[in-house]
Amino acid sequence: MRDAATPEEIASYQEHGFVVLPSLLDATELARWRERLHSALERRRTRLPDPGGEYGEFFRSEHEYYDRVFTQRIDLRLDDPAVAELVCSPALGRIAAQLAGAGGVRIYLDQALVKEPYANPTGFHVDVPFWSFSSPDALTIWVALDDATAENGCLCYLPGTHRTRRYDNADIGPQLGALFGVYPEWRSIDPVFCPVPAGSAVAHNGLTAHGAGANMTRRRRFAMTVAYMPDGAAYNGKQDIMTTEEAARLRVGDPLDDPVRHPLVPAV
User: Fold this and answer.
1) Phi then psi for 128, rounded to 5 degrees?
2) Which of 153, 157, 225, 245 could form a disulfide with 212 if both were Cys (CB 3.0 to 4.6 A apart)?
3) Interatomic CA distance for residues 268 and 246, integer angstroms
4) Which CATH number fits domain 7-245: 3.90.190.10, 3.40.50.150, 2.60.120.620, 3.40.50.80?
5) What is the value of pTM for the model shown?
6) For 174-216, how does the pLDDT look when each residue is reduced to its tens digit (9 = 90+)?
7) What band does 49 get if pLDDT is binned at 50, 70 and 90?
8) Do residues 124 and 86 touch, judged by C-beta distance below 8 A?
9) How distant, in Å, are the alpha carbons of 36, 62, 152, 188, 194 from that of 158?
């Protein structure tokens, strides 16, 4: 695995709010990621590893559309050591820290995202407003385990939107442009599509608007993502993926520094 971002990648990420990371995994690593993550998906049948999370309750009661956007499994690393070895990679975390300009980052969550054949498109949204902390320096590394193409729903971004530094959002629902009701000034920005081959990745800031097209093919499109927050990020009162018991132990302003749920990855 690559263990560093180039100066050009860092500059592009900071300017546009996203960057393609070519050849993140070599062929052997890609095969290992595919095997371990396919096995983990087969074993886990629920979005979250533990019941009682606000996020899980939300999607049990609403958003039938969302269920047809992708098959989603969150925090596979928490109940699968083989996945943890992959997503807790110091090399991957180092790249995240370099892009964010942080001395160290903590994993907020990992999630496997599978766009099934003929799956719905993913409406434009920003990530951080869903999460249990608020930071303009959060980011996600989205690793393609299959070729991501325009035909099967590669990611697309509205460049520069991370600079707004607002935490308003729209749900991921059937109105693909609902986010423009919140940020009407973004309607004039042309989206940039980021097709990437398997083994490459895309990194994006947690406040960069992004979405993905439908999968118009008869094959799955599989990606694995790791979301990072800067070390020192604090709880904002949103339960999100935490269980009720976990959230009850926190007060607004407490650092999210549990070494198991949110391990630290130093920049060097």
Assistant:
1) -55, -40
2) 153
3) 30
4) 2.60.120.620
5) 0.94
6) 888 999 999 999 999 999 999 999 999 999 999 999 999 999 9
7) confident
8) no
9) 33, 27, 19, 10, 11
